Amino acid sequence: MKRKFLIVLCFMIVFSFLMETSLPAVRIKDIAAIVGIRHNQLIGYGLVVGLNGSGDKDKTEFTLQTLMSMLERMGIKVNADDVKVKNVAAVLVTADFPPFIRIGGKIDVLVSSLGDAKSLQGGTLILTPLRAPDGKVYAVAQGPLSTGGFAYGGDSGGGIQVNHPTVGKIVGGALVEREVSYNFNEKNFLLLAIQNPDFTTASRLTKVINHSFRNSIASSLDPATIKIKIPAGYSGNIVELVTRIETLQVVPDTVARVVIDERTGTIIVGENVRLSTVAVSHGNLSIIIKENKEVSQPFPFSPSPGKRGGYGDSETGSLAAPGGQTVVTPDSEVIVEEERTKLMLLPTGASINELVRALNALGVSPRDLIAIFQALKASGALQAELEII
Q1: In the beta sheet, which residues pair with residue 125?
Q2: Are residues 268 and 363 in the same domain?
Q3: Given Cys at both, which of 168, 197, 214, 332 links 224, Cβ 3.0 to 4.6 Å?
Q4: Are residues 141 and 197 in the same domain?
Q5: Which positions ≥6 away from 200 have C-beta within 8 Å?
Q6: pLDDT tens digits for the chain (389 residues)?
Q7: Under 8 Å CB-to-CB from 385, ≥6 apart: which residues?
Q8: HSE (side-chain half, CA atoms, 13 Å) at 152
Q9: What local confidence, expressed as pLDDT, does residue 180 receive?
Q10: CA distance 57 to 89
Q11: Inter-axis angle of helices 238-246 and 199-213, nearest 10
Q12: 381, 278: one domain
């Protein structure tokens, strides 16, 4: 009896291990990130010159003022009435400032028209400082734009446009002038932020890290944060520690959720979505109203309304135009059609596969699926969150 118990126990342990390992595992670096190591946003205001008449109009005052200020800083005095800006466009320049980038490094910039320019094709961005929210300049951008599109039009108003010509990009167009300081190797602990906070995921992540290092160096502060103590062997060598942690495999847990996008008819159903016992039936009621116009055309030389004569006036004997009138009468046709549908029974705990199979058997469209999921949630049979975006 004891031997049979041990065999069953071993079988259960192996089975649970296989079930755990059969779940899709991902790297920690794909679901979490080190707190403090992040990208920053930069923004700047500048001018794009060299346009072929597709720049801002002369009534765009801020473009004119910017151009005059730039020329004055260069020692050139001009009259506002003599300045034309059809080859110049005011733009906003944005960039993504990555962590640990050093002075002299290059980053990409995105240039977007700020005024009423028709196209930035062929233009060149003039030296533009890029600032962070703290007001300091971290990079300067300059160079020729690549719009990936064009727009041409004629004097009559017609034209052709490919892609979006009022937004351009300069690959490596910004030169880094200031660094973001981060004392990485002087840390006594690291904070790991989970992208999708979850209690189960945080617990699993903590266990995976502690098992890998054979020490309790990780602890869950909350569903979104894991605190990791720096082991003695990795003091001053945090890069190796982070590299080892990021490559560890963990099985994240997710909340049962159904996401619906009514604008596009897109429906995403999570793996853990379950149903209580419910019967589903869905039918379409179509009401079609057709409006037709019927024209009643009188015969030639027909008498006028109220007249007994044909061509002319029977009382006076004078000739007159025919008095027949063309009459348009509406003709409405209403058609009501109702499709016959089947009643589909779903048992308690029906999985996503059974749900999809049942809905496909009903032959419903994406729009119908949205109505069905909303009705399932209202009835309490859908054991999942219903999110409409």
Answers
A1: 48, 143
A2: yes
A3: 197
A4: no
A5: 253
A6: 445 444 444 444 444 444 444 457 899 999 999 988 889 999 999 999 999 888 898 888 888 889 888 988 888 888 877 788 889 999 999 999 998 899 999 999 999 999 889 889 889 999 999 999 999 999 999 999 988 766 666 555 556 666 778 999 999 999 999 998 877 777 888 999 999 999 999 999 999 999 999 999 999 999 999 999 999 888 888 889 999 999 999 998 888 888 888 778 788 887 778 777 777 666 654 445 555 667 666 666 555 555 554 444 545 444 444 556 777 776 656 564 555 555 566 666 666 667 767 767 666 677 777 887 888 888 888 888 888 88
A7: 255, 256, 257, 258
A8: 0
A9: 86
A10: 9
A11: 120
A12: yes
Note the Cα 39 to chain centre separation in Å.
20
With beta carbons less than 8 A apart as the criterion, state whether 121 and 151 touch. yes
Let me know how long the chain is.
Answer: 389
**Residue whose pair of structure tokens reads 């029974």 in the numeric block:** 345
The per-type count for the chain, helices as H runs and strands as E runs, is 6, 23
d(CA 138, CA 101): 11
**Number of Cβ atoms within 10 Å of the Cβ of 304:** 16
Q: Which residue has the tokens 């790297």?
A: 27
Does 197 reside within a domain? yes
Whether 195 and 99 share a structural domain: no
Residues 266 and 368 placed together within one structural domain of the fold: yes
**Domain end: 250, 265, 299, which one?**
250
Structure tokens at 32: 């979490």
Domain range for 215 is 183-250
Q: How many domains does the chain have?
A: 3
Whether residue 16 lies inside any domain: the answer is: no
Taking 3-state DSSP, the helix, strand and coil percentages for the chain, each rounded to the nearest 5, stand at: 25, 35, 40
Q: Are residues 44 and 167 in the same domain?
A: yes
In a domain, 125, yes or no: yes
Q: Concatenated DSSP letters for 356-374?
A: HHHHHHHT--HHHHHHHHH
Residue type, position 172, single letter? G
Distance CA 82, CA 58 (A): 11
CA distance 152 to 154: 7
Q: What are phi and psi of 373, to 5 degrees?
A: -65, -40
Q: What is the pLDDT of residue 382?
A: 82
The whole-number pLDDT of residue 246 equals 92
* Structural domain contains residue 1: no
Q: Do 53 and 104 sit in the same domain of this protein? A: yes
CB 44 within 8 A of CB 112: no
Compute the Cα dihedral for 241, 243, 244, 248 and give only its sign.
Answer: positive
